[in-house]
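REVIEWER CHECKLIST
Item 1: Sequence provided? yes
Item 2: Single chain? yes
Item 3: Sequence as submitted:
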Amino acid sequence: MWIIYAHNHFLVTVCVDCIVSQVSHGIKYLFLPLTSKVIRMDSKIFFTSRPEHTGHVGSSDHGYSVFRRTLVGLCIVWFVGSASALAQTAPDLGATSPFAIVSETFVNTTAGTVVNGDVCFTTGPAVAPTINGTTATPCPPQTGIDQNDALADLNSQSCTSLGAAVALDTIAIGGGPPGVFPPGCYSSTGAMSITTGTTVTLDGIGVYIFRPGGALDPAADSNVVIAGGACANNIFWTPIGGTTVGANANFIGSIFRGTAAGLSITLGNSATLLGRALAFGSTVTTANNTITVPAACPGTLSVVKNSVGGDDAFEFTSSTLTPSPFTLTTAGGTATTTFTDLIPGTFDVAETVLAGWALTSQTCDNGNAPSAITLGAGDMVTCTFENTLLGAGQGSITVEKQTLPDGSTQSFSFSGDVVGSITDGNSLTVLVDPGTYTSTEALLAGWNLSSIVCDDANSTGDLGTATATFIVEADELVRCVFTNTQGAVVPPLIPPTAVPVLTRSGLVIMLLAMLLIVAYSWRHTKQN
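Item 4: Structure as written out by the authors:
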């Protein structure tokens, strides 16, 4: 089967279950112009196996036949990942989140240290710092558990290797200037350092993970700064060795102690840390420092528009985002806008579909429907809307799922000319030629199919068969909404058993039997 994914203004096709020699991981990647007739399910697109309309996934042989017939000038390209870093996720810091310092031993021998956040230790400092937060002695056990869990999460994520021992201020990522890093995870097999007096810039909205294979050594007078919407609470340093922040350095991010026993975190004289020193079971040393727990990151919502078959200006509306309406104009088949500094809550975004285009998928990467996007502190959610340019006279059929109560995560499956599984607020769309098509929902225990409502006059829904019948005319987009209500399914009434009706001869036989019984009883009584 040929599976095709949109990639800018190209489609990336993957041959699954095909026999392909000398292909890594058994998958063959190809890039091709957007000229083929396709069927879409969520973010995936499939070649149709029925030339008269697009409604069924073709086999590998047939997919290749369609592919070979419809495409000209095909170029096979090995898919190679870019040199840029992989997208990462922030761990749950749990009980450590409000702490600026977590330690077994807290050493402070110089006056002037100010801690803006909670502190915990077993052995306290000789010179008391100013602590604008609570102090716990010893550290709550949960802080150690959550510190280790967060570290395990960070260490499990895929990283871009920077080499052996590296000075971060000398590293250029993706052809950018040295010392400027986009969001991602970066590792080394040796120590990571920042040269004296230099600056490392973390630029862009996202999560930053730095994973030295040795020590972490930002030198004296070095700086880590953030730009482009980067958030201090989403920056993490997880060295295997110890950490020493040089004198007068300005450092940003949560530092985890090394994995070997006894490894510590040391801040040089007058250094600042916008972050956390997390060294449960080990030592944190300060000297006239300012350590501040960063504020929670605001939420971020990105809206991506992918257009297949051409470019256009697509309008969106929202009751919770500003500005609204807003327009995304695709170039090369894609466009993006990002809303930042969002207070945690529920947001919505909807597209006003242009004439001549079909909205073939709309999904958010956190699983929410675009009509109800839940955004927490620091969450980064991307919602992608994909449109396909309709051919002459072509239309589309869409199955939309709604549930009562709203927001259910239950997945509902459909078969027929629209195939797939969707949750509340999501939909499946297929491009079709004019004609009649059907899609049937597989009923689930605990759910009632309450209604099937289609948005045109001649398409219908049948609750008895759980089927929508689409009657599509040229250039028509037909949507049928299946609504399910959660609750025990009411079984159909069973008609009562019919009372038997005796024929005349049957009645005579019954009367004779009764007379015989009476006669026998009378004779038996007389004999006694």
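Item 5: Key structural point noted by reviewer: The first strand starts at residue 2 and ends at 7.
Item 6: Recommendation: ____
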